[in-house]
Amino acid sequence: MTSFLGILMLDTAFPRIPGDVGNPDSYPHPVRFHIVQGAYVTRIVRDAPPDPSLVAAFVQGARKLEADGAWGIVTSCGFLGHAQQALAAAVRIPVMASALSLGPMIHGMIGGRPLGILTADARALTPVLLRACGLDPATVRIAGLEGQGAWQRLILAPKHAQATILDPDEIGALVEAAARSLVAETPEIGAVLLECTNLPPYVQRIHRATGLPVFDILSAAALMRPHDFLTGEGSHPSSS
């Protein structure tokens, strides 16, 4: 049985370009996606934890991925950090539900300086979520993309209204502007962490704009990769 990285996916309609958590070409190893039906952005990206029924569906999906041979699991939305403990406790393989859980490690790497966070929606990134991911709200500085027309239509809209065409340059310009604003307003930050799993395609653009190291959900996936894949000894068939 071929092992792979399991990815618990929200139920969305927008395109997944290379670099996005939902594109298999974003990874140097096999992946397998499990879409949690009914897990719409509008039910997850909010200022409260997901409904227990949704958490149960994600747990069921994690168990299936583990049974099928996953060596680790990530999700397609940083706001699922609310479910980190439930997901990790449900399986025996590593789980990182949100890139936000990288925060404590990054905070140590940058000498205790504040950590900048770029998020899909700053209104929903609450102290409760930060603490669920091991972060002290006082140590972070946050910038969100909510209200930006193209972003709102693409990512935050209800599934039936989500844009089905993505202009990377248009979205990249919005992301870069948010990153520049974050650094201009809080120049003391030592790194940028991307809550949103749709932002990794723009990592290099963010780095060039800010001069800071940038971390994301793909960084988390790389941390969990087994040694045989790191050394090139593992099997690398097409993603399923």
Q: How is the main sheet built?
A: 4 strands, parallel
Domains (count): 2
Helical segment count: 10
In CATH, the topology of the largest domain is named Rossmann fold
Euclidean distance between termini CA atoms: 12 Å
Q: Major sheet: order of its strands?
A: 2-1-3-4
- Percentage of residues in helical conformation: 25-40%
Number of strands: 8
The CATH class label of the largest domain is Alpha Beta
Please provide a written account of the structure.
The protein has 240 residues and is an alpha/beta fold. Helices cover 36% and strands 15% of the residues. The protein has two domains: 4-98 and 219-230, Rossmann fold (3-Layer(aba) Sandwich); 100-216, Rossmann fold (3-Layer(aba) Sandwich). It is built from ten helices and eight strands. Strands 2-1-3-4 form a four-stranded parallel sheet, with helices on both faces. A four-stranded parallel sheet has the order 6-5-7-8. Strand 3, helix 3 (84-90) and strand 4 (95-96) form a beta-alpha-beta unit. Helix 7 packs parallel to helix 8 (203-210). The radius of gyration is 17 Å and the shape is globular.
